[in-house]
Amino acid sequence: MAERDYETIAGVTFDASGRTLVVRFADGDEVSISADRLLPVGKGARWEGTAVEDGLHLHVPVAAGQGDSGGDATDIPWDTVRTLTDPQFAAEMAQAAARNALQVGATLRTLRRQRGLTAAEMGSRTGMTQQSISRIENGRHNVSFATLEKLLAAMGCTLRDLQAEDGEALERASA
Residue 171: its pLDDT value, please? Predict the structure, then answer.
């Protein structure tokens, strides 16, 4: 069994009587999940037409204009299925999110300090409290994309600066 088999969707069938999808993974796991947990009812999903694409996601036909980018289909990634059906994987994803919050916060703090700004000054520039800035920088508060952009803009930074700083920190950590 290959390492990626846990991530590879091998097949899918729809049980109309129970409105469930049965998803088979390349590692032999088979999971059943209610269709209603995967997509909102109002999307007009035609579950019986669900197909596996590239082993990475389920391709679900939906009502015209209700799909991804306003199309007629929606893709459900393998990790969404695993998260909703495997409690251990869901816990690992939650831990990874917490680690990411710590890393993003630490990077924001480094960028702020490199620009000679205090947390209070950042608060003034963004309309946020100093406490909120501190919580974000310490990884104790998840930051939305809009807030992240606001914080970066207040320092004269972009997402590229955040990525560059993350990459440099990763290189230092692995050296």
Answer: 38
CATH code of the domain covering residue 163: 1.10.260.40
Domain count, the chain: 2
Residue 115, domain extent:
88-174
Whether pLDDT at 137 is above 90: yes
Phi first, then psi, for residue 45 (nearest 5°) are -60, 135
Alpha-carbon gap, residue 60 to 66, rounded angstroms? 11
pLDDT at 1: 62
Residue pair 38/21 in contact (Cβ under 8 Å)? The answer is yes
Rounded to whole angstroms, the Cα distance separating 58 from 31 reads 14
Look up residue 99 and give its two tokens.
């680690």
Q: Are residues 103 and 54 in the same domain?
A: no
14 and 81 within one domain: yes
Give the span between the Cα atoms of 24 and 7, in whole angstroms: 11
pLDDT in tens, 76-120: 999 999 999 999 999 999 999 889 889 999 999 999 999 999 999
